[in-house]
Design a protein that fits this description.
The chain is an alpha/beta fold. It folds into 2 domains: about 5-95 and about 210-245, P-loop containing nucleotide triphosphate hydrolases (Rossmann fold, 3-Layer(aba) Sandwich), CATH 3.40.50; about 110-205, no CATH class. It has helices spanning about 25-30, 70-80, 110-120, 125-140, 155-165, 185-200, 215-220, 235-245, and strands spanning about 5-15, 35-40, 45-55, 60-65, 85-95, 95-100, 175-180, 205-210, 220-225, 230-235. It has a 6-stranded mixed beta sheet with strand order 6-7-8-4-9-10, sandwiched between helices. The protein has a 4-stranded antiparallel beta sheet with strand order 2-3-1-5. The radius of gyration is 20 Å and the shape is globular.
Length: about 250
């Protein structure tokens, strides 16, 4: 059974290039509600999350709402293990699959095929599995002969199609996403959305950050509204969306 439990999780992001206290920093701290300040060691910090406590059970589909800088991406990175809480405890049970940055690990000088294996290795997908599915992956990208050319020759759309095709090979218990992915033309986007829906159905828990009311209400059973690194509201997706977006 997959399970997520956060207890009083706080995340402070250090800023190492500015260590002295100044009038500007004092003003910034006041203007940000105390989110920008000094650590005990004297360097500047930004408090991205503050005393977050929540539980997500097996089978839940959770949407994260909030303005830019509210803490959505930071929370996703805590769940994915990229960020370790400054204070508090994070307990995650289940295999994590992250679609936060699908282009991570793509090497512009390597060919499309080489990058399939590079990205798969980062996702801890065994080479044997990639070998078994390489033809279907290549077909899905619709890159044709470009699959044998360096990625630096690709357009941005081709680059994203390659990264998306490999990233969605994962079979996670807990799927983390930062906004819905838009890749390629309309025909490819439809195919990509179908693939994402299949991936979501296979996962035990979904946590997705989005600015789209339609997406949250369609895909999620629960929504969490973040504001200034704090949970402002947590409840049924329709109810939270009505409060956040307005009825």
């Amino acid at each position: 059974m997959s399970f997520i439990s956060l207890k009083n999780v706080t995340v402070d992001i250090p800023i190492y290039n500015s260590q002295s206290r100044s009038l500007k920093k004092t003003f910034m701290g006041l203007a940000s509600g105390g989110r920008i300040g000094l650590s005990e060691k004297g360097f500047s910090i930004v408090r991205s999350l503050s005393n977050i406590s929540l539980q997500i059970e097996d089978g839940e589909r959770v949407g994260l709402l909030g303005t830019n800088g509210a803490g959505k991406s930071t929370l996703l990175r805590v769940l994915g293990g990229a960020y370790i809480p400054t204070n508090g405890e994070a307990i995650i049970r289940g295999k994590i699959g992250s679609l936060i940055d699908v282009s991570l690990g793509i090497d512009s000088e390597s060919t499309g095929i080489e990058n399939i294996y590079l990205r798969a290795a980062l996702l801890q997908i065994p080479k044997k599995i990639v070998d078994e599915h390489i033809d279907s992956i290549i077909a899905f990208t619709e890159l044709g002969e470009f699959i044998n050319m360096p990625v630096r020759t690709y357009s941005s759309g081709m680059h994203m199609r390659l990264a998306f095709a490999v990233s969605t090979m994962i079979r996670p218990d807990i799927l983390l996403m930062d906004e819905w992915l838009s890749v390629g033309d309309l025909n490819f986007q439809k195919k990509a959305e179908e693939r994402l829906n299949e991936l979501i159905k296979r996962s035990s828990i979904l946590v997705i950050a989005s600015h789209s009311r339609q997406l949250i209400e369609k895909c999620c059973t629960r929504a969490i509204w973040l504001e200034n690194g704090n949970i402002k509201m947590d409840g049924a997706a329709n109810s939270v969306c009505a409060s956040y977006f307005g009825s």
